[in-house]
Amino acid sequence: MPPEAKAQMRPRPATRPSLHGPLAEQAYMHCRDAIVRGEMQAGKAISYTEICEILKMSRTPVREAMIHLELEGYLHRNQSNRLTVHAATSAQVAEGYWVREILEVHAVGLAARRISDAELAEVDELLKTDREALRTGGIESLAWTNDAIHDLILGASRNRSLVSLVKGLRAKVEGIHTFAVGSLADQVLFVRQHEQIGAALREGDAQTAADLTRSHLRKARDVLLAGLSDSVSRQNHSVRSLPNPALLRNSSPRPLGLTTLASTLDSRNHPVEPLPFQP
Q: What are the helix (H) ranges across 19-138?
């Protein structure tokens, strides 16, 4: 797919902030995209000087962009009152996917009844791109194509509220990370699930499309949680190797592990067990 077409189809924020001027918006979009794609690491302190140098702009628009990112939850202040990139915990990821499942499963069911022939043709083209990215091992391409497929199907639901809510949830916990932490087998499964969802859409089978999307989202959730768990284990190992006990006393609360999380979320998962699709 030509770069120009990719640029036009790249996911945009769920809601565009009221920024004063194009420079502030440019800074917002650059930093938000970098956070979503993991280029600005979780827990990393924000350097205004560095961002200004990269974007070649003054501190005023950058500062305004940071305010919006903080309000939207992408950034938060640490104990020293410095802005840092928000690190999503396992509980936050699981809760985000729980809500996203309810919304996106319903949206896909609507799309199965409302999608146009032109949109189905676009889905077919994206599925080809998906298979090619899998063949060449392009993780960034897989992540981009995943977003494009989900965005196209969401748009076919013809429900702007659903589209806005799902995009907002997705941007805060996903980006490229699912593909970066998942195995090759996970990537193969995601591509196959995309193809199965596409087939259900072509058949106009709302229930099958909804069921497949539910399974797809739960697998993505599990891959992310496993990646977070591995990351926490590595961090804990590093902390235990430090000789100063004071560092342990002052350390931040760790994200929930998978075992604790599973028991905590049993009741939360109940409302999203497979249910008949309701138009």
A: 22-36, 48-55, 59-71, 90-114, 117-136
